[in-house]
Amino acid sequence: MKIIKSMLVGASLALVASVSHAASSGNTLATVDPEADRLALQSYFQKRFPKVAVSDYVNGIYALDAPSREQWQEIEEFPPYEFDIEEGEELFNTAFANGKSYADCFANGGEGIRQNFPRWDEAQGQVVTLELAINQCRESNGEKALGWKKGKIAKISAYMASTSRDNVFDVQIPNDAAKAAYLDGKQSFYARRGQLNMSCASCHVAGANILIRADLPGPTLGHVTHFPVFRSKWGELGTLQRRYGGCQKNVRGTPQKTQGEKFRNLEFFQTYMSNGLVVNGPGARK
Amino acid sequence: MNKTISLVAALMMVSSSVAAQSFDDAFNAQRAMYGKGHSFTFEGQTYTTDHPEEVAAAVEANAENAAKLLAAAKDQHAQVVALDFDWTLTKKLLKASAKALAGGDFRKSMDISAQAQYHARMGMAQYHQSQKEWVMAVPE
Amino acid sequence: MRKNIIKHALLGLALIGASSVTLADYSADDIAKGKALYLNKKKGNCIACHMIPDADAKLPGNQGPPLLAMKARFPDSTKLRAQIWDATVRNPLSIMPPFGRHWILSEAEIDALIAYLYEY
């Protein structure tokens, strides 16, 4: 009996030790420190690629790999998303049936605000991405929601990004509820899933700029700044969460819901990691 | 004195139980090295390296058994879907198993069901493991 | 980096070369099956991350080490098998999918793959 008791003490001591270890690395709601996370990620990449300026990470893999940067710069000379921005502008400026328009839903008439998304919405108690805000705007004006991944919503989002270029990302985490959403996104980012047992971090932190066949995965720092992207593989424009779903399928997991809570929290975390970098979307990618 | 001894004993037991492999780890280590159909001993007992799903499928191939196995696989799959951690191949396997069952190829159906059920069980294990282990991948 | 790994692998080969190595004989059929698995994107797709000095294995990735001097590095085939089955046992942060534990390849397919790897 005594032995059992002491064993339990021992076990509980071990438990305490493991909990306090987790706490010291800032992965519980009480201890998670988004700003420390952001700086740790920056210093991780700076150590690995000391010659690359942090500000250059908005260019994704092209910040790290000179040969593909050249090809990409050629593409960007005649950007494949140019018509999408124009169409997006038209859509943005077309009035709803009730006479109102997107400009009425957003601060500053929707111009130059990309850097504030995703944002924690206290009234809704959830993370609101730019695409969710676009559809909420439509629905509150009696219009049908658009599909989430491509087409009109991506074009409108691309236009809004284009009016925000060079603005500095400034995602805010105002309270504990927002922090919980951030932590959930952080966990999603680092948790393995799918039959191939990979996390976002497997390829975009540890595996960044290392060949998977002929492809170089991009670094997660600066990952979100150039979205939506015109991806050569898609032959069209797509949103960040379209890419999330594609990544999850690539690791042979059933993708989570586009604009569901998990993906919005993931985008919240990922964009916070790029705070301090500038908006340069839409972008062109392989 | 007595107390000290029991405390030391307890600590030793704790540390040895920490050091000792769990059955799952021992099973996986054996399966990893030798594949299936291999015997090994764990804490004095003899086991084989066959997955429980494979053992369940190693019965007479008939409609009733095949239907039972497919139902069990679907049930396990529903559980991993509820965790949002299911794998893409598993759904296809469940369909293939149902098709084989309908076509009267019971052995094929049962073998596929075993794999699908195993996938679903591993998806659940992955969920629980990743809840604990994700922190290891965070850059310090 | 890659050069270094190769150097170490060759050094390992030289060191172990002296000791007698007994390996099961693998059939030509297994070797051919293993090669197909190595290259098949939907199966092993080992080429996505590992180079192997086979002229048909073009444009390999380099997330993982090159697969050279395999008999010297893995004189015990069960160690190589275990590594393919679940690389996270030895390295919890490994990006390598657990081909056996997640039943990405069947046990027979893993054995065929080993037959192919031991050709290099």
What would you say about this model in short?
Chain B is mostly helical. In chain B, 71% of the residues lie in helices and 6% in strands. Chain B has 2 domains: 20-50, no CATH class; 52-137, no CATH class.
Question: Describe it for me?
Answer:
The complex is a heterotrimer of chains A (286), B (140) and C (120). Chain A has 286 residues and is mainly alpha-helical. Chain A is built from 10 helices and 5 strands, in the order ααααββααααββααβ. Chain A has a 3-stranded mixed beta sheet with strand order 4-3-5. A two-stranded antiparallel sheet of chain A has the order 1-2. In chain A, helix 4 crosses helix 6, helix 5 packs across helix 6 and helix 7 packs across helix 10. The N terminus of chain A is likely disordered. The termini of chain B are far apart. Chain C has 120 residues and is an all-alpha fold. Chain C has one domain: Cytochrome Bc1 Complex, Chain D, domain 2, CATH 1.10.760.10. At the A-B interface, helix 1, helix 2, helix 7 and helix 8 of A face helix 1, helix 5 and helix 6 of B.
Count of spatially separate domains of chain C: 1
Q: Give me the Rg of chain A, rounded.
A: 21 Å
Q: Kindly, what is the distance between the CA atoms of the first and last residues of chain A, rounded to a whole number of angstroms? A: 65 Å
Strands of chain C, count: 0
Uncertain segments of chain C? 1-22
Query: Largest interface, and how many residues on either side?
Result: A-B, 36 and 29 residues
The CATH class of chain C is identified as Mainly Alpha
**Overall SS class of chain C:** mainly alpha
Task: Report the CATH superfamily of chain C.
Answer: Cytochrome c-like domain
Give me the number of helical elements of chain A.
10
Major β-sheet of chain A, in short? Answer: 3 strands, mixed
What are the segments of chain A in which pLDDT stays under 50 over at least 5 consecutive residues? 1-25
Largest sheet of chain C: none
What number of structural domains do the residues of chain A give? 2
CATH class of the largest domain in chain A: Mainly Alpha
CATH topology of chain C: Cytochrome Bc1 Complex, Chain D, domain 2
**Strand percentage of chain A, roughly?**
5-15%
